[in-house]
Amino acid sequence: METYRKVLTVGLILLAGLVAGVLLTESNVVGSAPSGLPASQRIATTTVVGPDFATTIFASKASCASRVVSTTDGTNQEILIVFGTPTNGDIATPTAIVGHAQTGSTTVAYDSGIYGCGAWKGYATASTTLLVSELY
């Protein structure tokens, strides 16, 4: 009977330690915000993209939850975006005909679980001001 109590006591202590470890462990999110939890805005700024050269819209980050790009400066100018620095393929810089298109006068929230947190570059055939936000 005494051995049974010792085994049960040790088992309960180990179980309590395991539960405490799980509850106290911090989550290191490298992609989108965890399901059911909010993201908070950390950066909001304006950036001008245009035809002279590809402009960095977002710097590369180790983690983020979402990135938001608004093309709402009244020019109705489409922009082209390259998400991150590709490690495979030949499209690293957007041009007038290369990149992922976002139409003018729109706001798009790009989930980092899909689009990543790398350096993004943008291009437009005419100068346009973007409002960009980064959420963590």
Summed up:
The chain is an alpha+beta fold and 136 residues long.
- Any guess at the CATH architecture of the domain at 41-135? Sandwich
Largest sheet: 4 strands, antiparallel
Low-confidence blocks of residues = none
Strand fraction band? 25-35%
Query: Rg to the nearest angstrom?
Result: 23 Å
Q: What best-fitting shape do the alpha-carbon axes yield?
A: elongated
Side-by-side strand order of the widest sheet? 1-8-3-6
**Number of beta strands:** 8
Beginning-to-end CA distance, first to last residue? 54 Å
Written overview of the protein:
- By secondary structure, the chain is of the alpha+beta class.
- It contains two helices and eight strands, in the order αββββββαββ.
- It has helices at 2-24, 112-115, and strands at residues 41-49, 55-58, 66-70, 79-83, 100-102, 107-111, 120-123, 128-135.
- The mean pLDDT is 83.
Keywords:
Jelly Rolls; four-stranded antiparallel β-sheet; 8 strands; alpha+beta; 136 residues
List the helices and strands and how they pair.
Blueprint (H helix, E strand, L loop, with lengths): L1 H23 L16 E9 L5 E4 L7 E5 L8 E5 L16 E3 L4 E5 H4 L4 E4 L4 E8 L1
Antiparallel strand pairs: 1-8, 2-7, 3-6, 3-8, 4-5, 4-7
